[in-house]
Each structure stands twice: as structure tokens, then as C-alpha cells.
Amino acid sequence: MTRFIQNTLIFLVSFMTPVTQAGTFDTDVNVSAYADAEQLQKEAAKYKPAKWKIPLNQNVIENMLVLDGELAVLSLRNYRRGLKRDRITLIDLAKGEMLWSRSVTEDEKDISIIAISKKYILIRTDSENTTNLITLKLRSGQPVWQKEIPATGRVMVQQMDSNHVVLATANNSKVEYQYINISTGDKLWLYRTTKTGAAITKLISHKKGIVVPANQLAYLDAKTGRVLWKVKIKYNNNTAPPVLWNNDLYIVDVNNKLNRVNLAKGKYIWSHKNPNRYLIMAVDVGKKQVFLRGLENGTVGQESVVIMLDKKRGRLKWRQTVNDKLPLISNLVDYKNHVYVGSPTTLYALEKSTGDIKFSKLVSKSQLSLYPLMLRRFDKKIVFIGELTVAAYHATTGKKYYRRGLTGINPAADLSALEISIKRLTKKRKEQRNKPMESRVCSFCQMSAASQTRADAIYRNPERFTAGERSSWRINVSFSRMYAAMGVYESALNFSQKVYEGLISQMDKENLARHKLIRTTILGAYPAMITEKYVYRPTRSLDLIDPDAGEFMQITAINLETGKKSKTSMSVPYKDYGLWVYVDEKRKIAYQQSIGFSHNADKPLMSYLIAKPVVLPR
């Protein structure tokens, strides 16, 4: 199934200038762009023209599932509706045609893709009181069957294979798992268990069985749902995910212990006692060793730790503290006498026999986001693949082969900036919600009332007015009228301030939602932009030699083995412009979304999906 479906996510940063079609670069030179007509023509001559472009109106692509390189299923969010999921559509990639679309109805709040087989697509829609599962024919979009679920608890749907999903519903203390045929909607079996936490735990497929990690580990026959065995291990879903290695499952329990269980026999093998109480963040299994990465409380905050266990008995071999301000977030590479792991800025090589640090290489000073970077090995090269930095080092000596720094699409769109922005906006929104309702007092209105009260007190005996009292009465009446006029102005200011605060609060809410979506899509898109030989990144061109060349949004491709890179200009940047891409290496075609936003609400958002030949380095 993983070969059948390749997943990439595409999102573009908001508030951009509208884009209209004009030649290769889908650009209107009359708007404020970073290239004029002459620069556009000169740049276009360097590359092959676009194969096709499809208008997507006011939508941005959240999710693009590419099926066998022939079809793409798009999940779209509508910018005019607060980035809510708007519709799902199928694209013929060869012809550049939109085959069908399924939009949300008036009663539906959300729509999402759940599962895809070669003939069917299962979608989920959510309304006020119900969740609906709907299977459509993949080629035509015609409905096949529909299942309605009352919205009385949590719902999770997980695809298990090419033709089956598990529908999990949680109410109070119970979780119910239904095994459903995608093509017919038939429920093949039902399994109930005790709920272990707020979230519903995902199941694990193993050959002809399914593992249910809950208050205990249960192994079910996938065809009948019959329980084949149970092991008393209570799963902790707030730590490292389970790892399946051949017939063995490595899983962390609620006591933060790593357990090894043989799934073929339902046999408990060993448990790592974890005496130092470090929080296990990742499990990597090798032929003879098991490596753990985690966090423990150090002298100054939390420290990263790498641990090696004997695979046969689960005994501790060594533990190594890594003094890095950032956690170890890469995968672990095991090669000959060393193991390699990385933080967002640094590559570490550890001696496999002792855990001692052989060498550390600072790869990037600026990459501070917790993007889950990837390490790869090519012969004797260890390749560090970060968000905007790709570098290769000799596996034994640490000698640098190459380092490629990239220019991001926009400073506000990298993960470091997004992390800071999301934390700031989240804190601000929390403070706004917790802030007590402020009653704004009109001080001039109070002063007007006080002056009028004093005047009224003097006016009770007007026949006996003295000259001083008459003068005082006139002064207070005069002040009352003046303060009343100023009070009208002050009240208007107070009302305007409330309206302004409301607008700012709404803008903060929208920005937070947008930044969270951008972050989610980056994290989802980047792993799909790393193939066996290449890594792809959306970049901005900066021609230092020819300052009159203009700026263009590009796809940069890097050959991971050689370090050679190539660039293909895709469009012209506007304010806060961004793009994400999916590259079909066999056809050498890049599928990219070009999009523009406008501050003027009367002008529509223009969005296109474009297919264009891409240059790949050798």
C-alpha cells in the first residue's frame, strides 16, 4: 500500500498578491512582483514550459495523495471560510483534468480523506450531531455506501490494508473497534476493550493479525477478530511509538519501560527496567542491539541521552549524555563501529562499543526548529538532511564532503519562525480568554453627572439665589454640558477600542490557525520530498551576479550522493509567497501550487495547480 500511495502535503503562506495567468510563469506583471516582463521572458527561456495548469479558485492544497503517478486526490481548504476543509477532488495528472469534486454540504463542518484503494476512496464528513463515512468510486466519485455515526464520543478511522479500515469509537471508559470492508461497508467483526487515555490508540498490522495496544496487549486474527493471545502490558501512547521488527514488537508501557514481545507466539521476552527514569522518545532496533533516545533531568534543564541495550536480554550496555541545547530528533543510523544521530544543528557519531562520542559536526547554526531531520548513508558518507541545510560527512573521520545551504521561500515560513509564532499566539489567545471582562467607565460622563448634581442642588431655591450661587450654578451647568459632549466622544473611543480588540482577537485566531496548518503541512510534506537519491526543497532565487535578473520561486533538487544541485524556476515571488511540490522522478515533472492572496476582500484569491518539467542533477 505504501508503494501504491505516495503522500505529500502542499501549503502556501497567506496574504499574497493576486496571480493571473501569463505564459510559463502564471504571473500578472501589473501587480507588485519581483520580476518584470523582460525578466520573465529571459527566465522562461531557460526552462521547458508548463504542461498544464488547473485553476483551484479560492482553495489551498492541504493534502495531495499521488496514486501510481497517474491520479492525485486533493484535500482543499477554503481561504475565504477561515481555512476550513472545503472539498476533495480527483486530478488526472497526465491530462491535467479535474475528474470530480465532492464539496461539503450546508450541514457539514468538515471533510477529509480516510482511506484509498485502487477502486475506492473513503471520506469522512462531520456535522453537528453525526460523523459520516462515505465510500466513493475512485474514477467517477459516485457514492457506493454511507455509514452514519452519532457524535457522542471520540471517533478514529485507520486504514489497515488496501481494502479494510478499522472504525474506533470511544465512549466513557470503553473503546469499540469495527473491522470494515472499504468496498462494501460490511462490518466483519467487532472488538471491545477498556479505554486507557484521552486518545484512541492506533492498531498495528502484523502479517494476518492485528495488535491492539490498550490496557493490555491483545492480538487478533484480522479475518475473524478472534483474540489469539493477550499480554499484560499497559500501553503508554504519550511516548515513543511501538516498533515492529520481524516478529517482535518493542513497546513502551505506562511505567516508561521498554518491552519486547514475540507476536508469533504471544510470548513476553524481556523488559528494560529504566532505573534512571529518562523519558523514552524514540526506539531504534538493529540486528544485535536496541538503541533508545530520550530526555532526562540534568543539572540545567533536560538533557538528551542515547542508550544501547543488548537485544537478546534487554540489558543495558551503555548510556551517553549528549550536551546539546536541542533534543536529538533524527533517525539513528547504525554502520559498522559507529551509530549516528543528530539534533537540528549537529551531527553526532558515537562509538558502538562504548557510547563515547567519536566526533560532532556543527551543520547549521540557524536551524533551531524541531523539524524531524533525516540521516541517510551512501557508502561511507553520512548525509544530514535538514530543513534548509543538506550536508555529507565521512562516516569514520567526520571529513566534510559537501554542505548545501538553501534560501527558504520566506523567513516567516520556516519551522523556526513558525514555532515562535505559534507559541506567542497561543499564549496571547490564552491570556485573552482568561482576561476578566473589563467594564470601561466613561469618566467624562461621570464628571458631567456630578456637575449636573451640584447644579441641581443649588437650583432647589432659585428665588433665594445669591450672586455667588447663581454664578456657581451657571458654571456647573456649563461644565455638565461640556463634559457630556466630551463623554460622547469618550464613549465612541471606548466602543472603537472594544471593536478593535475584537478584530485583533479574531486576527490572532485566524493567524494561529493558519500558522498551525503551515507547520503541519511542512512536517507532512518534507519527508515525501526525500527520495532514494534526491531531496527537494522550495527555495527563492537570489542572483548576486546579476541583480537585474529578478527573483523567482524555484524547486531545488540535491543529489544526496554527490551533493550536486539543480534549480528550476516555477513562478515569481510576491509578498509572503510560498510553494510546496511533489516531484515525479520517472517523468521528471514537478506538480506545484501557485497561489496569490489579496488584502482587498473584494478581489478573489487566485490559485493554480501546475505541472512543469524539472531539472534533476546527476
Automatic annotation (TrEMBL):
Classification via InterPro entries: PQQ_rpt_dom, Quinoprotein_ADH-like_sf, WD40/YVTN_repeat-like_dom_sf
Stated name of the protein: Pyrrolo-quinoline quinone repeat domain-containing protein
Alphabetical list of Gene3D superfamilies matching this protein: 2.40.10.480, YVTN repeat-like/Quinoprotein amine dehydrogenase
The Pyrrolo-quinoline quinone repeat domain, residue ranges: 85-283, 302-401
One Pfam family cited in the UniProt record for this chain: PQQ_2
